[in-house]
Write a structure and sequence with these properties.
Blueprint lengths: L5 H20 L4 H14 L3 H22 L5 H35 L14 H16 L8 H9 L1 H4 L7 H8 L9 H22 L3 H12 L6 H32 L4 E2 L11 H7 L2 H12 L9 H19 L3 H20 L6 H5 L1 H23 L3 H11 L18 H10 L4 H4 L6 E2 L12 H6 L5 H16 L13
Parallel strand pairs: 1-2
Helix pairs in contact: 1-2, 2-6, 3-4, 3-5, 4-5, 6-8, 9-11, 9-22, 10-11, 11-17, 11-18, 13-14, 14-15, 15-17, 17-18
């Protein structure tokens, strides 16, 4: 039951109706209803995985309670280590066991057992969320909370499957001690409008054109030659595919949560407008960047031990971040490439400031273009099913193949890429469009100056008839386009 499905729309409608009645008559039961709806949502995928999910919640809650009463003591640290180890073992078995055995078999030449493991949906997200919770508890950052508060924090369905990776400091202040759980019309309107915009991105702007991209990558995966133009079209096409796909999910998640009066952290802020790779990671999957910084990079030493150590910490952190996305060498290489980009940026910026150059119109435009190109090239590893396919794509992009130009597989992408580029680079993003309503939590104090152009004024959300009609038309169009869609890319992680 993905967000972009008829089944989910029905589930959401029923949940909102029942919740509205419950919140108005028995407000104390409202959070329990949302927990029940969230568990039903997760169990819809697999009942056995629901049992595993509940066991994980209970175990981490008990570990957190035990750590809270033993902060700074050896037994508390032991419980923390055991809790972290259990979470890593859980995700290691379900997500990486097959990959590790296959790698061991290819290296040693030995036959390894064939495992039939189905990965629980969202395991990377709820595991990282609970790892952060245990570490925050040990650091003394977690306030007193009930079991209900904790279950709500982990299971709340808008963020359960593909993020954002919510911190306890994001959600606990909004739920602990909350007495007014009623639906508020203004929040419902904003939430539905945001959800509609996200659904439209997924169903209309990008998904109908994914087959063009897939056809080119499938050709490369089959070992057949790919035309240079096709390779570049597929590379840029996938760059926009994952952009709109993740942007759509982020909008829908924030909109869904705000319908119930909950603000989730911003997870996506025009990443292709970034002026360098560091700026990209301040805008792309922002909660994952926060996790990698707070729970990997800083514990590794961060920037406190000199330039060489800083560069190595960045590379290791980003490589682990790549592995978090998927069990495969392509994801590891994607993370490594970003780590090398960031490490090079750290090294080059020692004693040298780029701010003056980037502040000029030409410098800013070139910085954005170079960063976008670098990110697009790295996405080739991310999209490819194996390293050999990625290298065939790179060879084709370099013109090292003799494929015919007579029948371009990506011909349909040619008029779309300029349109997508205009949407991404010129139009305001949804955070800017809905800034008056503030349906989100800002995890950065400064996200850049607010736009003041004509498109910003035209697209700024207002609770009026124009927006009501527009949102209705967008939602209706997306509803009728809900067929033969590809799953959200981040659902597989």
């Amino acid at each position: 039951m993905v967000f972009a499905s008829h089944a989910f729309i029905v589930f959401l409608s029923v949940t909102l109706c029942v919740y509205a009645i419950t919140a108005s008559r028995w407000p104390a039961f409202s959070p329990y209803l949302l927990i029940a709806a969230s568990l039903f949502f997760y169990g819809f995928w697999s009942v056995s995985h629901l049992v595993l999910f509940l066991a994980s919640i209970c175990a981490n809650y008990l570990a957190g309670q035990a750590i809270r009463t033993r902060i700074g003591r050896p037994e508390g640290k032991l419980i923390l280590v055991l809790g972290l180890s259990a979470n890593i073992a859980l995700i290691g078995y379900y997500k990486y066991a097959i990959f590790l055995l296959a790698t061991a078999s290819s290296v040693t030449g030995l036959n390894t057992p064939v495992l039939d493991i189905i990965m629980p949906i969202g395991i990377s997200f709820f595991t990282f969320q609970q790892i952060a919770f245990l570490v925050d508890t040990w650091r003394g950052k977690v306030v007193g909370h009930s079991f209900r508060d904790y279950v709500f924090f982990v299971s709340f369905f808008p963020q359960l499957i593909a993020g954002p990776i919510v911190s306890q400091s994001d959600l606990f202040p909004q739920t602990i001690g909350r007495s007014d759980w009623r639906l508020k019309p203004e929040q419902l309107v904003v939430g539905i409008s945001l959800f509609a915009v996200g659904l439209f991105k997924k169903t209309v702007i990008i998904d109908p054109f994914v087959p063009y991209i897939d056809a080119i990558y499938q050709t490369a995966a089959a070992g057949q030659p790919v035309a240079t133009a096709d390779a570049w079209l597929a590379a840029f096409g996938y760059s926009f595919q994952i952009y709109f796909d993740f942007s759509a999910y982020s909008d829908m998640a924030i909109g869904l949560a705000f319908m119930f009066g909950i603000r989730l952290p911003i997870n996506f802020y025009s990443p292709y407008k970034a002026v360098d790779i560091r700026d990209f990671w301040r805008r792309w999957h922002m909660t994952l960047s926060r996790f990698l910084r707070d729970y990997l990079y800083i514990p590794f030493g961060g920037s406190r031990r000199g330039l060489a150590h800083t560069v190595m910490a960045v590379i290791v952190t980003m490589t682990i971040g790549g592995l978090w996305h998927g069990a495969g060498w392509t994801f590891i290489l994607w993370g490594l490439v970003h780590g090398l980009f960031l490490g090079h940026l750290r090294q080059r910026r020692t004693g040298v400031a780029d701010a003056t150059w980037q502040a000029t119109p030409l410098g800013h435009a070139l910085s954005v273009a170079v960063t976008f190109l670098a990110v697009t090239l790295a996405w080739v590893y991310f999209r490819s099913p194996d390293v050999a396919t990625a290298h065939r794509m790179f060879a084709a992009m370099a013109g090292l193949t003799d494929a015919s130009y007579q029948h371009l597989l990506g011909r349909g992408l040619i008029p779309l890429i300029p349109l997508w580029l205009f949407i991404v680079m010129v139009l305001p993003n949804t955070t800017e469009m809905f800034r008056r309503a503030r349906p989100y939590l800002a995890i950065r104090e400064h996200l850049g100056s607010l736009p003041t152009g004509p498109f910003d004024r035209l697209m700024l959300f207002r609770q009026n008839w124009r927006w009501a009609i527009g949102s209705g038309l967008v939602l209706a169009t997306a509803w009728f386009a809900l067929s033969n869609l590809t799953p959200f890319i981040y659902f597989q992680f």
